[in-house]
Amino acid sequence: MAYTPDQSQSAFLRGSLKRSSSGRSLFNTIMTVIAFICGILAIIPLVAVLSYVIIQGLGSFRPGLFTELPPPPLVQGGGFGNAIIGTLVMVAIGALISIPIGVFAAVYLTEFSSGKIARWVRFATNILNGVPSIIAGVFAYGIVVVTTGTFSAVAGGVALAVLMLPIIVRTTDEALQLVSNDLRQAAVGLGSTKFQSVMLVVLPAAVPAIVTGVTLSIARAAGETAPLLFTALFSQFWPTGLFQPTASLAVLVYNFAIAPYKNWQSMAWAASLILVLMVLLTSIIARLATRRKIYS
User: How far apart are CA 251 and CA 44, in angstroms?
Assistant: First the structure.
């Protein structure tokens, strides 16, 4: 059977398309495999760190860790209940300072400011987010510790607030920008003022993303060590006031891990495990918060 010119051209085109499709498919497969390998490599450090901390920390994990004070060197038993309370107190102080300031600053940036001012404030927020944590500690030392004359939980909370603030501003700012303008226009159309529409309509719609930013900032603050060395220092006893040296889990891990005593080193691993579990808990809360929709 003889081929007509049209049949020959169609066969040529089919062959070309087949080769081209085969080449693209091969390239797509190779890049998919490379991306998969890079994804696996990216989570290996996380899995390795978590596994090592869990293995080392579980060996010293017991209920007494939450209710007892740190033991003297070479004495078995004891716990770090004072460090857990101190961490929660300082993170709470930091959250009380940074959350209202951060949320209202983001509301001003998104809803009320002019474009030029908003750009400068966002630029300053990005710079603050990149400031090393030890600088925040030195700042709080100069502002609070020198003024009050003592290391304290309040000074530690102020240092943590400086670190939490840019995270809250950025996440809240981005969350508010994602809220549909239809909601704002509907609120204004119903007769509400600009402030009422922001507080009663826009902010509730952005609550899940704002909660995510807040929990991420809390997770970062709970694990900071350097700023607390300059502000809260450390204490072997239960906290009895906000204006006195206060223990924290991060500083306890730092102090006990470098000590030449086996019981302190094992306690540092247990404290590291508690810190990891606290970060995991805040991440779970953030995930649950993002699943909640105010307006569907």
Answer: 27
